[in-house]
Amino acid sequence: MFPSYADHILHFGIVGGSISGLSAAYWLRRAGHIVTIIEKHPIQVFQDQKYGGLRIPPNITRLFKKIDGMEDTFQKKGSLNEGTLFYQEETGEVVGRTLFEEELMADLGSKYYRVPYSDLWNHLYEFCKACDVRFKFDFQVARATFGNPGKEVPKITSTAGEEFHCDVIIGADGHNSTIREMILPDLLHDEDSSDSDELDESSKAAHFPNIEEWVTFSIPLDKVKNDSDLNFLTQHYFGVMWMGDGVAHFSGIEGNDQYVINVFYPFRRFGSDDMDWDSTEPIPVSAEEIEGTECVPLCV
Ligand SMILES: Cc1cc2nc3c(=O)[nH]c(=O)nc-3n(C[C@H](O)[C@H](O)[C@H](O)COP(=O)(O)OP(=O)(O)OC[C@H]3O[C@@H](n4cnc5c(N)ncnc54)[C@H](O)[C@@H]3O)c2cc1C
C-alpha cells in the first residue's frame, strides 16, 4: 500500500494497542516495515469505550492531521475546546477565563478538540488494518528478552507462555510499562528513590496541594441539557474549572453526546493507584462524600 522508504525492512513488535501503539504502527508501516501490535485486552474494550476521552491540543492535532480524514473525524465526532472558565466554587463567581481565540489558533496552526476515546481509536485501527498491520489481542506480555545481535532475535513471552519473535520491540504499554521496566530497571528505581528523597514536604505541596486522587465520569449530554439548573453548562464549548477550598471539578462537553466531569479529591477515595481501559464497573459516589470535602454543591 505504501512505498517503502526503509533500506532494511524490519519486523517491529509494538506492545500496547492504544493511541501510541496504533500511531507508531501506522508510521512504521508507511515507512515499509512489518508491524505486529500486541495488546493484553480484547478488541471490544477499545471499540466501544464509553469512559474516556482525549483533550487534543493544537500541536497534537497538527500531527494527527497528517493521517487522512483524522481532522474530519475530530470535527464530526469530537467537540471544540474554546477555552476555560474559572469559577469560584463557593460563590459561583467567574474569576477568570482563558480564550482560545481564532487568531491564536491560526498561529498555532490547528484547533483544540476533545474527542471520545473510541472514535480516535477506531479511526487509527481502521487505518492500521488497511495497511496490513498485524494484531495479537488478548496477549498480555509477561516478559521480553532483547536478543543478541547475530545470535538470537528479541522475544516477547505472554503470561500464557506464548512466544513471539521480532527484530525490534517498542514499548507503547502506558505509564506502568512492563517494557520500560525491563529496559531501564536501574534508571527507574534510581528515579523513584531520588523523587522521594529529594522532594521535601513543601515542594510536594506546591505540585498538587491536598489532591490525592481524581476521578472522571461522564453524563449523557441530553440529561445535562434537559436539567434546567445545569442546561447553562451546555450553551458553550468551554472547559469549566470549579475551584474550591482543597477540591476542584473540571467539566465540559466531549464529542456529541457526553458531558465529562473530573473530580479532584483531597483524600484517597478508591484505594487504587491506577485505572485501566477495562475498568468499566460503575463506582457510586454519595452526596455525603462530596460534602466531606467541605464543598457544598451550588446551583448558579
Ligand atoms: C479510564 C481512562 C480515562 C481517561 N480519560 C481521559 C480524558 O478524559 N481526557 C484525556 O485527555 N485523557 C484521558 N485519559 C488518558 C489518555 O487516555 C492517555 O493519556 C492515552 O490513552 C495514552 O495513550 P497511550 O497509548 O500512551 O497509553 P494507554 O492508553 O495507557 O495504552 C497502553 C496500552 O498498553 C496495553 N498494555 C499495558 N501493559 C501491557 C502488557 N503487559 N501486555 C500487553 N499490553 C499491555 C494496555 O492495555 C493499553 O491498551 C484516560 C485514561 C484512562 C485509562
Automatic annotation (TrEMBL):
Keyword Oxidoreductase assigned: yes
The UniProt record lists the keyword Flavoprotein: yes
InterPro entries per the UniProt record, alphabetical: FAD-bd, FAD-dep_Monooxygenase_BioMet, FAD/NAD-bd_sf
Protein name per its UniProtKB record: FAD-binding domain-containing protein
Pfam families: FAD_binding_3
Coiled coil: none
Family affiliation: Belongs to the paxM FAD-dependent monooxygenase family.
Record SUPFAM superfamilies: FAD/NAD(P)-binding domain (SSF51905)
Alphabetized UniProt keyword annotations: FAD, Flavoprotein, Monooxygenase, Oxidoreductase
Domain FAD-binding: 14-186
